[in-house]
Specification:
- This protein has 395 residues and is α/β, with parallel strands linked by helices.
- 45% of the residues lie in helices and 12% in strands.
- The strands form three sheets. It has a four-stranded parallel beta sheet.
- Strand 9 and strand 10 form a beta hairpin.
- The longest helix is centred in the last third of the chain and has 20 residues.
Length: 395
Amino acid sequence: MVPLAAMQMLASGVTATIHANTTWGAAGRQPDDLVRTIAAYDAAGLRAVVGIGAQDRASLVFPAEAQPGFLASLSEDLRALVGDPDPPIFARTAAEAEALFDDLSARLPGHGRIRLAFAPAGPQWVSDALFSGLAAAAKARGAPIHMHALESVAQAAAAPGLYPEGTLARLESLGVLGPLTPLAHAAQLTPGDIVVAARSGTRLVRNPASNLRLGCGQAPLAAYWAAGVRVAVGTDCQTMDDDEDLWKELRLAARLSTEPAWHGAGPPDAARLLAMATTEGAAAMGLAGQVGRLAPGLAADLIAVDLRRVRGAYADPSVPLLDLLLARADARDVRLTMVDGRVLYRDGHFPNLDAAAITEAAAQAAQRAREPWTPAREAQVAALVAAVRGHYAAR
């Protein structure tokens, strides 16, 4: 639910976000879902890049060639539960995605805080033809391409069959990669992929808590930096505490980077961590030189942090303030969040939002989602999940 996530982000001091299109359910809902997503970010006042999802293969399991056999292996009741394995939930062609992009662009608010991107679902779900078409469409419009790529072990296992020359090498040949193409997760990049990311200027977005929670492994941050890859940080709406607290994500990224790959070099310094959430985040959104720093000529996106709890009972005077902030601060310490010169959060209050109404609406939506649930259906879903796991384990 976008209003709830936006409210949590503002309370954590987050001023801007990339939103991957996550339409689910009935076919044909994508345009309406995107309109409501844009409206929610606009109402909250956040700066957002909203992705237009595109997918044309392997909706249920990947690779696409394995899907018919997988369906045939299911019992009749599980096939009925699945229904159409490839519903047209997202744009299926570049022309369809372009038309949606152009229609929504004409209806965007004039303040410029909301922008659009093309958002292919991921390498295993998108054909070469769709990728190349989206790359051309994005280039013609100066728009970013955002996707989740090489997130899981299963995706990494499927990649050599789909892209023998290397996943990122294929994407580069299709025109997909570059400074305006942030790749979320990237937890399973090969050494060859890392070389391509560095060479093409493609930016990676680290999602440490999400990768831990979903059992996807951890992106080798030290190796990325050593190769010259630029890295930002995000939450994937899967923070450790379900609270969109980016402070904790930065701390987790730092802790997970104190691995043997550093070979005694030590963890990343505070300035580099902060850059992941500020200047690198702005660049990943295509907003380098517009936001991400406090400087003349840049938009007034800023936060205020209360240092009393951060300093605590004792903090050695020799500890630099930035080190102390990134070691101890979290959403509890954020007193004010401002975007484009407008105060959107102050001391627990949201001038533009009805926090109680949003919280209640989220609870009602959760209840509606649960209402058709029955023990028998829960057992069916568990059986389908087990079948999917078995499919990937066998590969």
